[in-house]
C-alpha cells in the first residue's frame, strides 16, 4: 500500500508557520502597546514610577509591573486602550492598502516586457528639457523652462506619474479609433499648450477641439477660422488667396494636385483622365495667378475651352511651352478635349459655390490670411471641412500645405528652425487634408521646427489616401507613433505585436512522486502583447513607438481631468452654444418660409 506523500507534511508546516506569524503580528505590537499604556496610566494617575521595558510582562502580568494601579486602571491602560489602538491601526492599514490597490488598478499595472523609464529616457522630463534648450535658442539661458515649452505631452508611462513627451523635432502619426481619446487626450492638450502658432484641421466643431480651444488660444494670439462648408457656421472674417503660391509651374501643380487628391483615391490618380484633368487645372491656375486674377476665373475658362485669355497670359509671362501644351489640348480631338475639361470641372466644382468661393477670393473689409505672417506669430488657424468635401477639402489641404511651406521658408531664413515651433494637428487628415506628398514632407518638417501630428482612424485609411508605399513611408518617417484602442485590423495588430517583440517568461512545473514533491523552473519566450491584446487595449491607454526605443504603454491624460478643466469646459460650452445659435439664426428664414407655405 503506497505511503502518504511528504507534501502533506509540507503543507502542514506551511499552515503552522502562517499561524505562528499571524500570532506574532498581533502579540508583538499589542504587548508593546500594553507596556506603553501602563506607563502612561501610571504617569497620569501618579500611581508610581514607570515600569522597565518588559512588554511580555506588561501583557501577561501588568499588576506586577504597576502594583500601585487599581484593577480598573490596569484594565483600561493595558487592555482596552492598546486593543482599540491596535484595531484602529489595522483598519487604517487595510484602508490604505485597498486605496493603493485600487489606485494601482486604476493606473493599469505596467505590462511585463514593455518599456520602463530607463528604456525611454530621451522622452522623459530631464532629457526632453535638455533637448529643448539645444533646439530653441530662446530657451538656452532660461533658468526655468515650463514643461509645455519642452515638448508635447503624450501621456504618463503606464502605472507611474512619469510624463512622456515628444520633442519639438519629432514628427508623429497617431492611429486611434473614434472615441479612443485622440481629440481629448492628444489634439486638445497639444493645442492648449503649444508655445507657437497652431494649425488644426478637423471635420467637427461643436464639442470638439475647435470649441474646446478657441477661447484659450484667443488669449495668446489671433484665431483664424476657415469654414467654407459652415461646420461651425463661422462668420467670414478672413479670406485666403490659394493662387499666391501658384505663380510658378511647381506651385500651380501642387494646387491642382490638392484638387485631384480630394476627388480620387491614390489608386486612381495615375490614369489618363485624372492626370490630364490635373494638368489642365495647373495650367489655368498658373495663368490666373500670373495675371492676379481670382481663382474663380478658372471656372469660366473651364466652361469655355476656346477662350484664349489663359493662352495669352501664359505667353506674355514667358511660359510659351505651357501655353503650347494648353493649346494642344484645346485644339485636340473634341471628344478627348471635352473629357479632359469635364474631369477638371468636376475636380474644381466646389468653386462654383459662391459661399465656398468667398473664402478664397478678395473680400471688402475682410482681412487676408497670409501664411508668411502667421508662422511668425502665436496665432491659431482652424481649417474645417466635411468628410468627402471634394473641392472644399482641397482648399483646406491647400491652405494647410501653404502654411507648412511658408513655415519651411521662414525656418530657412531664421537659421534652420522655427522658434517657437509650429504645431500642425492634422486631425481626420485622410478625410479633409489629403496632401499628396505629406509622407515625403515628414522627412524634413521636424528638423525645421514644424511638428505635424497626423491623426488617422486606421492604418488602412492612410493606405487609401497615400497608397501602400506612401503610408509605409509616413509610418517609417514618423519618429513617434501613437496607437490607441480600437485597432480591428488583424494584420496591423499582428505587425504591432511583432514590433513590440517577445520576452522571457519563467515557467514553474511541479511533480509529485513517492519521494516527495519536486519543482523545476524553465524559461520560454512569448509575445509581450499578442494581437488580441492590442485589439483589446482599454480606452485611456495607448502604445507609443519612438525611434530607437522599446515600445511603451501610456496612460493618456484627457484635458478634462487636468487643472483648469472647469474653466475650459465652460468656455467650450459657450462656444458650442454660439454655434447652435448661429445655425438657428441662419436657418430661421427657411423655417419661417416653410411655416408660411404650410
From TrEMBL:
Membrane topology type: Multi-pass membrane protein
Residue ranges crossing the lipid bilayer per the database entry: 15-35, 76-98
Keywords: Cell membrane, Membrane, Transmembrane, Transmembrane helix
InterPro entries referenced in this protein's UniProt entry, alphabetically: P-loop_NTPase, T4SS-coupling_protein, TraG-D_C
Biased composition (Low complexity): 507-522
UniProt cross-references to CDD domains, sorted A to Z: TrwB_TraG_TraD_VirD4
GO CC aspect terms: plasma membrane
Region annotated Disordered, chain positions: 505-524
Pfam family, one: TraG-D_C
Domain of life: Bacteria
Protein name (database record): TraM recognition domain-containing protein
Organism of derivation: Streptomyces chromofuscus
Taxon lineage: Bacteria, Bacillati, Actinomycetota, Actinomycetes, Kitasatosporales
